[in-house]
Design goal:
The chain has a single domain, classed as Rossmann fold (3-Layer(aba) Sandwich). Helix content is 54%, strand content 14%. The chain has six helices and six strands; from the N terminus they run E-H-H-E-H-H-E-H-H-E-E-E. The longest helix is centred in the first third of the chain and has 16 residues, at 22-37.
């Protein structure tokens, strides 16, 4: 795939969860490709979810310093800032596609950044939301 690619927090978590087996390997490979091609896009929501989940759900737990270093690395990626206008657009996406609000916020962020693909394990693989296609890399 070409064009900008939005990455959901679950992909970031798997890429840092060494005990996730094949998902760890697939997520690491995907992120490496996006780094190399400079196509990766995130949002403030994704970074926030990553910070919480990587330290809570990982075993062994990922520490504060490693989490901070990962966020510092991701500062080099394009990042969509969630604003009050983003929240209003997400409400429309939520209603239109019958998504949870949090998933709608992800979809609207990907769309607002001009992404053609949204990598996520949480949304339906192949589903298209206003020009953004969901791809489950697993």
């Amino acid at each position: 795939m070409s064009g900008k690619a939005f990455v959901d927090s679950n992909i970031l978590v798997y890429a840092h969860q060494r005990n996730a087996g094949e998902k760890f390997e697939a997520a690491k490979a995907l992120l490496a490709t996006l780094w190399r091609e400079k196509r990766g896009v995130l949002s403030t929501q994704v970074l926030q979810e990553f910070c919480v989940n990587i330290r809570r759900k990982s075993s062994p737990s990922v520490g504060w310093q490693e989490t901070r270093e990962a966020i510092e690395d991701f500062m080099n990626w394009e990042t969509v800032l969630n604003t009050p206008a983003s929240v209003l657009r997400a409400l429309e996406v939520e209603r239109k596609y019958q998504l949870s609000f949090w998933d709608a916020l992800i979809v609207q962020a990907a769309g607002s950044a001009g992404c053609t693909v949204l990598y996520s394990e949480d949304l339906s693989h192949g589903q298209v939301y206003g020009g953004v296609q969901v791809v489950n890399p697993f």
